[in-house]
Design a protein that fits this description.
heterodimer, A: about 270 residues, mainly alpha, 11 helices, B: about 300 residues, alpha/beta, Rossmann fold, Alpha-Beta Plaits, six-stranded mixed sheet, four-stranded antiparallel sheet
Chain lengths: ~270, ~300
């Protein structure tokens, strides 16, 4: 062990410290999402599952179903599960892995950090969906050629943005749970509760209580998300329903969660 | 310079930190001592903005930590070496920190070399690091931005003897270049060797603060002779109360010169004569924090 003293300050000459720009934080957060072992495998699994789903459609789907929509749906399913997990871990790892101690010491403005994480999550979502569409397109070309049928491009330009939005809604729900719960295990369990358990309960409630029947689509975010995946959000009322569920499940809890998070103690 | 003023932090009824005020001066190493749960870590967390104080303030060079534009360049912080993402490599952790501060990547290699992590170790994931290696990584993170102030909670924990020596040289070098060092530790010997100033906290309150010389001056003298009884007797004749410790040493509250003079007059050959400094800090610590010790007994 050498008794080296701190290297001379010339390497990083004293400068008037500049505020940390938000673009830099976004880059850092993006890097942090994938420079861990779990983050790395999440990313790999998106690519691998896209290819597997594509292969499954080519092998198992009847020739009439070799269409772009089939591929997009098949790839979209695993992605709709993995993307929210990525969003959750982007936030909760700071607490569950305690790296927040360093993160929030280097950047005391926690709102900026969470904002940068939100942007980074959005970019990952857009990138992943782009990969899904690309892999699906390749699969469609290859699959139709193998099956000897015409290549069917049955996803309209109005449908594609809705499918993208559907994935972003799922990520936003995960992100919100991460901010509110700040614990990886709790947020992941929470995500499956609100995405698998709760919709069933709401549907059941709508069946037994007639007054709730009209209310349910305004509350059930899962229903509005499925509508997006199917490209079926068309009327003004349907968009308003999406707005309502987004407000209830994303905007309000996220705002409250960030307010608490900014004051909370990082241990 | 770190200034803590009337800092209080309450948790559901009990005050973890209760009206604490002290300063850590530039060019000096300030040792922050206290029993487990005395409020050291809470105070340090408030300093760096991780915990919101109930009242009072902590400032660094006159500014609240949260108001520093790029804190990593001004304050190096190590609160808990284990608080790192276990799935990240050591090098990645430093790279992320360097990117956040806007430093060139070359700084990462400099720091890895400075804290004596090998390039192979730097590529390993932190999950596989020993406590000592995590501590080194934490110190590297703290020094990355070439700060003027260091806030370190138990940095010597888990370091091997060579590492402790290295850390000591590093911190004294840092202070001699005008840096401010605030360092908490349970290793009283370490603190005694390295610190210029001491702040002792117990049950959330400051129980003593000042320079090491001031605080240890009253700790008296340790003397040995071939016959401790004769020495104690001679001291008693001279009106100096003394105690004979179990190891045969004689301790008094007066300075060594007087004990030497008494021994000379009495014709007693001393085999050892020194200020009881090394045991002094421990005694002082235990007596000052006696009310707050879990064990309920003080030396």
């Amino acid at each position: 062990m050498t008794a080296t003293i701190v290297p001379p300050a010339t390497a990083t000459a004293r400068r008037a410290a500049q505020p940390i720009p938000i673009t830099r934080l976004v880059k850092v957060e993006l890097r942090k999402m994938f420079n861990t072992r779990s983050g790395f495998w999440m990313l790999i699994s998106i690519g691998v599952l896209s290819v597997i789903a594509t292969g499954a459609v080519i092998i198992f789907a009847p020739d009439t179903d070799i269409t772009y929509a089939s591929f997009a749906t098949a790839i979209g399913f695993p992605m709709s599960v993995i993307l929210p997990m990525i969003a959750i871990l982007a936030v909760t790892s700071e607490w569950s892995q305690r790296s927040g101690l360093t993160t929030f010491t280097l950047v005391p403005s926690r709102g900026h950090v969470i904002g940068a994480k939100a942007v980074a999550t959005l970019l990952v979502g857009l990138g992943s969906v782009a990969v899904a569409f690309a892999v699906g397109a390749l699969g469609n070309v290859a699959g139709s050629a193998l099956a000897g049928v015409d290549t069917v491009w049955n996803i309209s330009l109005s449908m594609a943005p809705q499918m993208v939005l559907g994935n972003l809604v799922g990520m936003a729900i995960g992100f919100t749970l991460g901010v509110v719960l700040r614990n990886s295990a709790a947020a992941i369990v929470g995500y499956f509760v609100v995405s698998l358990v709760m919709p069933g309960i709401l549907v059941l409630l709508a069946q037994v209580r007639s007054w709730f029947e009209d209310l349910q689509p305004w509350i059930d975010w899962n229903e509005t998300q499925v509508a997006l995946f199917e490209g079926a959000t068309n009327t003004g009322e349907e968009w308003a329903m999406l707005g309502s569920t987004t407000m209830i499940w994303i905007v309000i809890p996220l705002v409250v969660g960030v307010l608490f998070l900014r004051r909370s103690e990082v241990k | 310079m770190i200034t803590v003023e009337s800092l209080t932090r309450r948790y559901a009824g009990f005050a973890a930190v209760d009206n604490v005020s002290f300063t850590a001066q530039p060019g000096r190493v300030t040792g922050f001592l206290g029993p487990n749960g005395a409020g050291k870590s809470t105070t340090m967390r408030v300093m760096v903005g991780l915990t919101v104080p109930t009242s009072g303030s902590a400032t660094i060079n006159g500014k609240r930590f949260a108001d520093l534009p790029n804190p990593g360049l001004e304050v190096g912080v190590l609160l808990d070496a284990s608080a790192q993402h276990a799935g990240r490599t050591g090098r990645e952790i430093l790279t992320v920190a360097a990117d956040t501060m806007g430093l060139p990547r070359t700084r990462v290699d400099e720091m890895i070399e400075l804290v004596s992590l090998t390039p192979a170790e730097a590529k390993r994931r932190v999950r596989n690091y020993s406590l000592g290696m995590r501590q080194r990584l934490g110190i590297a993170t703290a020094l990355l931005g070439d700060p003027q102030v260091l806030i370190l909670d138990e940095p010597a924990n888990g370091l091997d003897p060579a590492g402790i020596r290295w850390m000591r040289d590093l911190l004294t070098g840092f202070a001699s270049q005008g840096g401010t060092v605030l360092l908490s530790s349970h290793l009283l010997h370490e603190i005694e060797v390295i610190a210029d100033d001491l702040v002792v906290i117990g049950n959330g309150k400051i129980v003593a603060a000042g320079t090491k010389e001031e605080l240890l001056a009253a700790s008296g003298t340790l003397a040995r002779s071939t016959s401790p009884r004769d020495l104690a007797h001679a001291l008693e004749q001279a009106g100096i109360p003394s105690t004979i410790a179990g190891d045969g040493s004689v301790r008094t509250d007066v300075d060594p010169a007087r004990v030497g003079a008494v021994a000379l007059t009495a014709g007693i050959a001393l085999t050892e004569l020194r200020s009881a400094e090394s045991a002094g800090l421990e005694d002082m610590f235990l007596s000052l924090t006696a009310d707050t010790q879990r064990e309920g007994v003080a030396a």
